[in-house]
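User: Can you recover a sequence for this backbone? Please restate the input before giving your answer.

Assistant: Of course. Working from this structure:
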């Protein structure tokens, strides 16, 4: 049996509706990790649906409790074919964002897979049930076609990713031997554009913190005291304006990389950020001067104000407010140590005369940045495999603009990571009407079958 026969078989698996029937069962399981009433479904997704699917492929499975004490277990499926073979670790998450059922379009439900034109609607279709189902189906097809994978496969399913994957890092440390591998090949996140197959090899990190200005104990009547009392809302606005200009250019340079590495810049040369017909229009004038759109989001750091308040915005009163607060975020690449960011910002504000504004945080656990060099042999191998399957080159992005717990795999398990996303940016993944596009699913099945076939026949250099 040949590579092309395997790809033809997976294509038929989609065209005859079998894949979507599998996905429909999985979408129907209400795995909302944010809702306590749905927590029993997290375990049943693994015990009743995913576990049996792996066992049918000759995998051994373990369903292990979360060391963080939350009701969100992990599944680890293993198929070991030989000690001398490469081992591929895969990752997906079975939990979803809350359904928000009343907000979906008429005729749609988050728990019923529904086709409308070239879209399949349902919660988890894009994030992440559809994506890990594609990779599972591709593994099964290679097994059925060749009779073996030709490599060792470990597949991990998380059920608390949508609440920040509490316990995932500790789980990886506790079970490092169970997850030991040579490379991670996973799927999450969006393509650069709906028609652009994409590889990314890491993620930007995220650091959330607050800028806080406490002026006095309480508010004071603006008629009696306006013009005499400094307004913390005004001062905080000016402090933020000193950090970042009205065009998005960051003036606090210590929180930025010194430069974009040459290999990253080369990889981004032909990358086009396409929001799609349902996405927002990109403001070309915003951001770091002299960078391309792709370099701004994949190769650079950004400073964002996510929320800001002073006084009582819901019920304003005629008083000079006593305090102001802005919740901010830095998205960052591996080129700068995030531990330096908050002290650098405080020094910058002090130097600008805003020492009364305090940098407080981090307010959440720091999501670390990761990146695999685009010149790594595994990246070149994956690019060649996908090109052979689809007849066109994928876009190669050194790291995704958003964040994933990829440092679990790069830093704890110690493997290079390659992600092949099977969604697109306007899929409404955390909103009502989440959906996938039929041709992305079809191409995803073909790409992953080709990748797994090639891993068993001509694996990349992984040492």
């Amino acid at each position: 049996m040949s590579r092309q026969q395997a790809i033809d078989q997976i294509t038929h698996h989609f065209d005859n509706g079998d894949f979507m029937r599998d996905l429909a069962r999985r979408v129907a399981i209400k795995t909302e990790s944010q809702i306590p009433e749905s927590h029993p479904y997290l375990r049943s997704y693994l015990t009743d649906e995913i576990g049996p699917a792996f066992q049918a492929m000759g995998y051994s499975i373990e369903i292990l409790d979360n060391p963080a004490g939350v009701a969100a277990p992990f599944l680890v499926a293993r198929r070991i074919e030989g000690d001398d073979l490469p081992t591929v670790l895969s990752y997906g998450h079975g939990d979803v964002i809350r359904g928000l059922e009343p907000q979906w379009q008429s005729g749609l439900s988050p728990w019923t897979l529904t086709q409308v034109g070239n879209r399949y609607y349902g919660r988890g279709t894009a994030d992440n049930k559809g994506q890990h189902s594609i990779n599972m189906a591709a593994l099964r097809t290679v097994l059925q076609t060749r009779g073996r994978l030709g490599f060792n496969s470990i597949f991990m399913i998380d059920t608390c990713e949508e609440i920040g994957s509490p316990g995932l890092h500790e789980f990886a440390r506790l079970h490092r031997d169970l997850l030991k591998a040579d490379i991670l090949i996973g799927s999450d996140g969006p393509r650069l554009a709906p028609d652009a197959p994409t590889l990314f090899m890491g993620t930007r990190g995220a650091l959330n913190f607050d800028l806080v200005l406490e002026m006095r104990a309480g508010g004071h009547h603006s008629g009696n005291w306006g013009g005499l009392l400094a307004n913390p809302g005004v001062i905080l606005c000016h402090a933020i304006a000193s950090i970042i200009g009205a065009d998005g250019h960051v003036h606090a340079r210590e929180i930025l990389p010194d430069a974009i590495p040459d290999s990253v810049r080369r990889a981004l040369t032909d990358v086009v950020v396409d929001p799609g017909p349902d996405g927002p229009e990109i403001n070309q004038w915003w951001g770091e001067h002299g960078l391309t759109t792709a370099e701004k989001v994949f190769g650079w750091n950004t400073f964002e104000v996510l929320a800001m308040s002073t006084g009582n915005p819901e019920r304003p009163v005629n008083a000079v407010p006593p305090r102001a607060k802005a919740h901010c975020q830095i998205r960052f690449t591996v080129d700068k140590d995030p531990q330096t960011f908050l002290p650098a910002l405080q020094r910058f504000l002090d130097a600008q005369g805003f020492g009364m504004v305090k940098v407080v945080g981090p307010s959440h656990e720091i999501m670390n940045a990761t990146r695999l060099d685009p010149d790594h042999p595994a990246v070149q191998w994956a690019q060649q495999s996908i090109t052979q399957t689809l007849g066109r080159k994928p876009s190669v992005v050194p790291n995704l603009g958003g964040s994933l717990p990829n440092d679990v795999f790069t830093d704890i398990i110690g493997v290079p990571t390659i992600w092949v996303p099977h969604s697109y940016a306007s899929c409404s993944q955390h909103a009502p009407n989440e959906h996938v596009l039929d041709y992305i699913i079809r191409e995803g099945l073909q790409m992953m079958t080709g990748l797994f076939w090639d891993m068993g026949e001509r694996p990349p250099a992984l040492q």
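That completes the design. The chain has 13 helices and 17 strands.
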